[in-house]
Amino acid sequence: MAQHDITIKVNGAEKSASVESRLLLVHFLRETLAMTGTHIGCDTTHCGACTVLLDGEPVKSCTVLTVQADGHAVTTVEGLEQGGKLHPIQNGFWQEHGLQCGFCTPGMLMTGYALLARNPAPSEEEIREAISGNLCRCTGYVNIIKSVQHAAAALEEERQASTEAA
Amino acid sequence: METTTAPKTSATICGMGHSMKRKEDPRFIRGQGNFVDDVKLPGMLHMAIVRSPFAHAKIVAIHTEKAMAVPGVLAVITGETLKSYNLHWMPTLMSDTQMVLPVEKVMYQAQEVAAVIATDRYAAADGVDAVEVEYDPLPVVIDPKKALLPDAPVLRTDKEGKKDNLIWHWQTGDATATDKAFAEADVTVSQDIYIPRIHVASIETCGCVADFNPAMGHLTVHMTTQAPHAIRTVFALVAGHVGLSEEKIRIISPDIGGGFGGKVPVYPGYVIAVAASVVIGKPVKWIENRMENLQADSFARDYHMSVDLAAKKDGTMTALRIKTLADHGYTDAAANPSKYPAGMFSICTGSYDIKTAFTEMDAAYTNKPPGGVAYRCSFRVTEAAHAIERITDVLAQELKMDAAEIRFKNFIGADRFPYKSALGWEYDSGNYAAALQKAMDMIGYDELRREQAEKRSRGELMGIGICSFTEIVGAGPAKDFDILGIKMFDSAEIRVHPTGKAITRLGTKSQGQGHETTYAQIVAEELGIPAAHVQVEEGDTDTAPYGLGTYASRSTPVSGAACAMAARKIRDKAKKIAAHLLEVSEEDLDWEPGKFSVKGAPQKSKTIQECAFAAYTNAIPGLEPGLEAISYYDPPNLTFPFGSYICVVDIDRGTGMVKIRRFVAVDDCGNIINPMIVEGQIHGGLNMGMAPALLEEISYDENGNISGGSFMDYLVPTSMESPAWETGKTTTPSPHHPLGAKGVGESATVGAPPAIANAVVDALAHLGVKHVDIPITPEKVWNLLRAAGVAE
Questions:
Q1: Å from A162 to nearest chain B CA?
Q2: Among residues B204, B389, B516, B746, which one is catalytic?
Q3: For chain B: N or C, fewer Cβ within 10 A?
Q4: C-beta neighbour count of B195 within 10 angstroms
Q5: Could you tell me whether strands B426-427 and B419-420 are parallel, antiparallel, or unpaired per DSSP bridges?
Q6: Is residue B364 within 8 Å of B166, Cβ to Cβ?
Q7: CB count, 10 Å around CB of B449?
């Protein structure tokens, strides 16, 4: 099996490794880098537990080859918290009981994060559509939607505060 | 029992009734949970499984040479390997037997045939591809009705003398009296109802890391299990003869990514991984992929029911009769209490005062995966609720009565509790009419009926469905309930530290239910120690007291009670300490959460924290040092949560698509510990009720090929199919539970399917439709519309 030398910027830090052609990105993250926040729930790109951001876009890392991410930037759930401060999407899930078993949560957080980056004030319908590739078996989604809305409101407050400060 | 609706403790203490934010969440929202696949041990090997493409076939030969030549492959384990240790068969939790790996033949598609052990998961998968198995196909039996015909091939040829495919016959109730009541009835209705095979499909699949230490003879298994202690005992019973005695076995159930009943059984993969670790002397990890999970793990349901209901002309129900054919696959690997092979199915008289009832059941072997486990329901309650709630609507339709009216007419009155049902249960408490009335008020029932009439006149299809279910959970009293002989008590141990903080360990195991928060709140309620200061641990058999685990909504009814009882023992001791410190007698002390004070002199007081400190720093005459307690709680009865759900659907005449417009769920689970968590449990349960009602089914063709064996075909609901659930509650405490709580995790999964099915039938009733089996797919509905000439 051919080996490839790759470098991927993971949560802002460059990570280099020699990997097999077939190594999935999710296995690179979980096993090569021992970053186990990203989960595996299926093998067919349906459940979304493995969602990470590739150059800011949510992708399912169980169907991305590591070599495809060579030279690109990957953000995982471990990259959300900054300087000891939870990202509002993380806090939103905590405050609104947006998780139960916690297994789909990292993927949901990444999808929610990406949604709010492109649409700061999504409607319920837009949130439902955005997370429709992420399965949750515990919550019935109602509180996940509230969690994303909670985060949207918090981010809006942050924006207003920084505008006022400026 | 006092009804608790407002919290008695401060927000700082955060006892019952507070919507405390979950203590477990900080790790999950940071991606720092510790799930089984996150466990990585030095020298760990990986296992992957070769599975059968046939549903029934002789194994002629297994060729492992090519697999052994794959780089990284260390071993291929077959049934013959295990046979040399007498480990190729194992008992199921129902005292049937199940192959770990086959020696002679396979019994279902996707059955484990061999296991490859390799240095990494890619090499293990390569090894699986290189194993060559020669099969000789055998006749396949898929339909359980055909399985019980006299000329059906006998599947369990391993069972000496077995001449048919009947696993067991079970019955309860009074057959003669029931037949008489039917003969004398003004009106009788009958309906065949099939509840298809479904799968819990938790987002985390099953798996383990088996870690045998050859030097010490110790085995540690990190595994996805809802019942770690029971699993330890099963392992000791299965593998005692090869030296694995119980004190050398440690089961660790780490964070579990959803269980719902699917993580109760012992699957062959766990046992093979353990055997591999013992033989090789290194840790072995096995993680199922999704298709293995859906195709080979225990399924739920698969009940073919014939339901008869007798009534007077005015709609008063007089007798119920249900005959069921249960398809258990090739072995009965359910996880029901020993005395109840059909679980709690005899709750089928539901919320109604039906004087006479009889139910019987045949369980059949077929060439399907083993099981009959739960799908987020307490031992077959979902099937029972579906039967009674559907047949109630069939009766209402026959008598041209409103679905709410017939329920009000037949409800067991609030003044009738404790109520002895015709099939022998003693319902602890209930107020069914109040719950239904509340649901009707919340949804605006009368207005919806007016809207429906108007829409019907325009040819639009709108339905309103009601379900007023009664659950039976919290197994269970030791006199009646055991699994493999182990009584179904559960446990809690609390240790209060010198600084007044505490740790509690329990025999249950959360899979997302929020135990780390809920149990902490129980301790807070009883001791006044802030819930934030109470650490909760479960899932490690070396540290937690013995318990039967979490399923069948038993954690709050059983371990929650144990937690309260242990806390009360601690409070009793703390009272003695406070009396000593305050130099008064115990009788002179008042208690409020967190503090003892002297009667008539409330300024003289000692906090629970001061008592804890004194327990370790003072030598108190007549008292042992320390402040800890343990309780093994044997519940005096089961608990009977209930609820009334109302569903409104609109049906598209062009596509047959059913859209849930509104769904109101009023639940009564007794006194509530954490309202936020309870609501979350109901939301999730509703979604897992809607799923089999509209989307999910695992079926087989006549050759035993599975359909619905991946997420391509098995339609777990996404956010797009899931309604915006509306919830409400009434509060009727359990009279026998120390906190008045009843359990809630599964109520909604039980109550939602009939509400949805009843709504769909209601929308189509004027077209002559009396019943639709779940899942109610667009195709089924469209065919009904076409038959009625109204499809667009």
A1: 25
A2: B746
A3: C
A4: 23
A5: antiparallel
A6: yes
A7: 14
Which secondary-structure segment (H or E) carries B624?
none
Residues 6+ apart with CB under 8 A from B151: none
- CB-CB neighbors (< 8 A) of B256 in chain A: 101
The number of C-alpha atoms within 13 Å of B748 and in the hemisphere containing its C-beta is 30
The pLDDT of B374-402, averaged and rounded, is 96
How high does pLDDT run on average in chain B?
97
Cβ–Cβ under 8 Å, residues B483 and B93: yes
Are residues A101 and B512, on separate chains, in Cβ contact within 8 Å? yes
* Residues from chain B contacting residue A132 (CB–CB below 8 Å): 718-720
Residues in chain A within 8 Å Cβ distance of B253: none
Output phi, psi for B591, to 5 deg. -120, 130
3-state secondary structure of B89: strand
The chain A residue lying nearest B686, using CA atoms, is A140
Backbone angles phi, psi at A152, to 5 degrees: -60, -45
Q: What is the mean pLDDT of residues B254-259?
A: 98
- Per-residue pLDDT tens, chain A, 166 aa: give them: 799 999 999 999 999 999 999 999 999 999 999 999 999 999 899 999 999 999 999 999 999 999 999 999 999 999 999 999 999 999 999 999 999 999 999 999 999 999 999 999 999 999 999 999 999 999 999 999 999 999 999 999 999 999 998 8
Mapping DSSP to helix (H, G, I), strand (E, B) and coil, where does residue B123 land? helix
d(CA A132, CA B719): 5
Q: Is A9 on the interface with B (CB under 8 A)?
A: no
State the number of CA atoms in the 13 A half-sphere of B334 facing the CB. 30
Q: Does A143 contact B710 at a Cβ distance shorter than 8 Å?
A: no
* DSSP β-ladder status, A3-10 and B371-373: unpaired
Give the chain A residue whose CA is nearest to the CA of B674.
A97
Residue B377 bears catalytic tag: yes
The span from the CA of B589 to the CA of B86, in Å, is 63
Contact present, B371 and B747 (Cβ < 8 Å): no
Burial class (CB in 10 A: 0-12, 13-18, 19+), B58: middle
Position B175 scores a pLDDT of: 98
Using CB atoms and an 8 Å cut-off, which of residues 39-98 of chain A contact chain B? Answer: 39-44, 46-47, 49, 76-78, 80-81, 86, 90-91, 93-95, 97
Sheet of A51-54: strand order equals: A13-20, A3-10, A73-75, A51-54, A57-60
Q: Mind telling me how many Å the CA of A114 is from chain B's nearest CA?
A: 16
C-alpha distances out from residue B590 to B555, B574, B586, Å: 31, 12, 9
Q: List Cα–Cα distances, A75 to A27, A65, A106, B40, B552, in angstroms.
A: 15, 15, 11, 23, 39
Question: Is some CB atom of chain B closer than 8 A to the CB atom of A142?
Answer: yes
Q: How many CB atoms lie within 10 A of CB A106?
A: 30
Confidence at residue B779, expressed as pLDDT on a 0 to 100 scale: 97
Beta carbons of B718 and A42 less than 8 Å apart:
no
Residues near B142 by Cβ (< 8 Å), separated by ≥ 6?
Answer: B55, B366, B367, B368, B700, B701, B702, B703, B704
| Contact (CB<8Å) B203/A142 | no
How many interface pairs between A and B have CB atoms less than 8 angstroms apart? Answer: 176
Only one residue has tokens 């309620």, namely B525
What residues of chain A lie within 8 A of the CB of B289, using their CB? 42-43
- Contact list in A for residue B200 (CB cut-off 8 A) is 137
Chain B residues with CB under 8 Å of A44 CB are 290, 710-712
C-beta of residue A96 within 8 angstroms of C-beta of residue A77: no
User: Is A20 an interface residue toward B (CB < 8 Å)?
Assistant: yes
> What digits encode the pLDDT tens for the residues B688-708?
999 999 999 999 999 999 998
CA distance B677 to B17: 11
Asked if A112 reaches chain B (Cβ–Cβ under 8 Å), the answer is no
Omega before B150 within 30 of 0, i.e. cis: no
